[in-house]
């Protein structure tokens, strides 16, 4: 009887030890890793994104819970070692995060948290505006061109064009300010139409500016003077032609009257 009691006591101790060892093993969860499945944290409005949460260490089943700003969003129980997937829709600026996930055993009161993630909301750029302090210049003059897109996520990259020919290098602006280039109008070929193009990380959203023309100073005045002189000369010619026709008619009538007088005699 005494031996049976000792055996029962030993079995109880062993059973408790096994349970304790099992419990300790289940607490060996590692901090889960939270990553975007699409590989980037850049998002656009109305986009669906998927987050993956997985604890590399620990034994399933594991419960994964996703939080946004410390508020529970969703929870998934995994009975194997595959990651928990959470699909979200970016409907407003508040949906960019911050996000975290928690891994825990159902029987455990503890748990471990992942790294945090915050999305970056990418906005499309607006049509850039190309401008310069002057539109008329002389040969050999230095001028500036400014290209600026008022809206759109930074950074914004600008590229200038003369006609269809690009003017390297392109300029990437990290702040909300215009890209500026300096031009030396050395020959008549440097005058003409310029444009610029702007783009950012928003997909398929490159936009071109308005056209801007540099004209040679003095040409308008010369053309205007020539036009005025030409108009004046044309008026003189027309006046002379009218007077010539009137004089010819008078001469014809005069000759006819003289002819009639001679017939009477």
From TrEMBL:
Gene3D superfamilies: Immunoglobulins. PROSITE patterns: IG_LIKE. Pfam families: Ig_3, Ig_C17orf99. Keywords: Disulfide bond, Glycoprotein, Signal. GO terms for molecular function: transmembrane signaling receptor activity. Coiled coil: none annotated. Residues 32-118, 124-215 form the Ig-like domain. GO terms for biological process: cell surface receptor signaling pathway; immune response. Residues 1-17 form the signal peptide. It comes from the Eukaryota. GO terms for cellular component: external side of plasma membrane. SUPFAM superfamilies: Immunoglobulin. This is Ig-like domain-containing protein. It comes from Catharus ustulatus (Russet-backed thrush).
């Amino acid at each position: 009887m005494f031996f049976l009691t000792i055996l029962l006591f030993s079995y109880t101790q062993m059973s408790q030890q096994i349970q304790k060892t099992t419990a300790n093993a289940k607490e060996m969860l590692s901090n889960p890793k939270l990553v975007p499945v699409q590989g980037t944290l850049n998002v656009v409005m109305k986009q669906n994104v998927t987050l993956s949460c997985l604890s590399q260490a620990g034994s399933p089943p594991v419960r994964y819970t996703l939080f946004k700003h410390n508020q529970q969003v969703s929870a998934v129980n995994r009975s194997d070692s595959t990651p928990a997937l959470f699909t979200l829709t970016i409907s407003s600026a508040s949906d960019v995060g911050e996000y975290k996930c928690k891994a825990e055993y159902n029987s455990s009161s503890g748990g471990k948290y992942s790294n945090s993630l915050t999305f970056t909301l990418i906005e499309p750029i607006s049509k850039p505006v190309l401008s310069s302090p002057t539109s008329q210049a002389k040969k050999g003059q230095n001028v500036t061109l400014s290209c600026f897109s008022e809206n759109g996520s930074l950074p914004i990259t600008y590229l200038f064009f003369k006609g269809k020919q690009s003017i390297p290098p392109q300029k990437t602006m990290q702040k909300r300010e215009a890209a500026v280039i300096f031009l030396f109008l050395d020959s008549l070929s440097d005058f003409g139409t310029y444009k610029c193009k702007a783009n950012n990380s928003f997909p398929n959203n490159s936009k071109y500016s308005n056209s801007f023309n540099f004209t040679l100073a003095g040409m308008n005045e010369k053309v205007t003077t020539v036009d005025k002189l030409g108009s004046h000369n044309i008026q003189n010619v027309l006046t002379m032609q009218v007077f010539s026709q009137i004089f010819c008619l008078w001469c014809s009538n005069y000759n006819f009257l003289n002819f009639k007088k001679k017939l009477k005699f």
